[in-house]
Amino acid sequence: MYQVVRKLFFTDCQCAEDASTKYEDLFAKLDTNKDGKVDVSELKAGLAAMGIKTGKGAAQKIVSSGDQDKDEGLDFNEFSKYLKEHEKKLRLTFKSLDKNNDGRIDFMEIKQSLAELGMEITKEDAEKILKSIDVDGTMTVDWNEWREHFLFNPATNLQDIIRYWKHTTVLDIGDSLAIPDEFTEEEKTTGMWWKQLSAGAMAGAVSRTGTAPLDRMKVFMQVHSSKSNKISLVSGFKQMLKEGGVTSLWRGNGVNVLKIAPETAIKFMAYEQYKKLLSSEPGKVQTHERFMAGSMAGATAQTAIYPMEVMKTRLTLRKTGQYSGMFDCAKKIMKKEGVKAFYKGYIPNILGIIPYAGIDLAVYESLKNLWLSHYAKDTANPGVLVLLGCGTISSTCGQLASYPLALIRTRMQAQASVEGSEQMPMSRMVKKILEKEGFFGLYRGILPNFMKVIPAVSISYVVYEYMRSGLGIQK
Question: Are residues 349 and 409 in contact, defined by beta-carbon separation less than 8 angstroms?
């Protein structure tokens, strides 16, 4: 029976009409009670009867993935749509593994591909993997053998596509509101994740240091610029240089760099826990669940390190001699204003996570799907420039959406350090800005903010690649 199904279903040449007929024949064989639906038990029993081996829980995953109307079964349209989409993913993965483009995968290509995913295996292990897929005993796997082996094994961790398109926090543009990094099970078990987080933290530190003058200018304009006191980039830098010299351009950068490591670690740990709590299916996280988990993880991390955010703003705006350093700043704030001062601007900051993370994720997913549907013919790898472009555009859109909240947060953080400044709650401050400066008053300082995006992304990417190499992370 298995050989009959194999000849019937797995052939080299399949036009759309033939494929549809094959799907119909297969669906008819699996739908044993003829109710027009294939449920988990029918799928499991049918595939076993045909001699098709499936992994643990594979039938349940197939039905869950394809079941659009949530009736716990697949009708013919759902069944054929699932197979077509899954086959496309398998084709992309096959092409990515077939390094020499000869239409066959050998054990060296398997070994090399796994090494690129951070898994070093022996030649013997690679041969074992190959033998488990190889049907005709040639010690190579062609497309038909690959499809035959994986078509009914949902392989939700198609590592190639996931790793290429992982929306990573490596692109550090000075804001910590993005959704955290995701790691594969292999990276978690091999300990590769902490190396990648370390490389990302170092990249962020160098990137923020390189763009610190523009970041200070952004904060300076957010707090001091208004219709009556217009500050341009040139006049702003002149004021800073006159008041404190060249080194004053890096005020507040120490705290900004110092908070990267604890925030990254807390966010990553919290994200893993929230994903487990929110995912409707073990091991599979939907986009909306990922957004919720990411936003909650961001809020958790921000709550823990927020006093450092306040100190960064105070140190960035300080006048020469006002504070001798981070600890002196903390001591003076505590003495004069109390503990509450360390959480000024907390509400707009937390609210800012939602539009930032939501738009960042939505734009990135849209750009990814656009590329995969139009250009992913021979490989799932979009290349460095496409990934950097998608990440930069999505992060910039996220910043654009959340910027007014970031400005309110910064002004609230800075209130006590600005002479004659009135202590206002968030709603009153928004109202005052809109009355005095209009809608665009909420976007003061956005020019230097956008100016730092491209250099920040470029620096963080270059440093990250060097760190990966130094820490022995395979590309």
Answer: yes
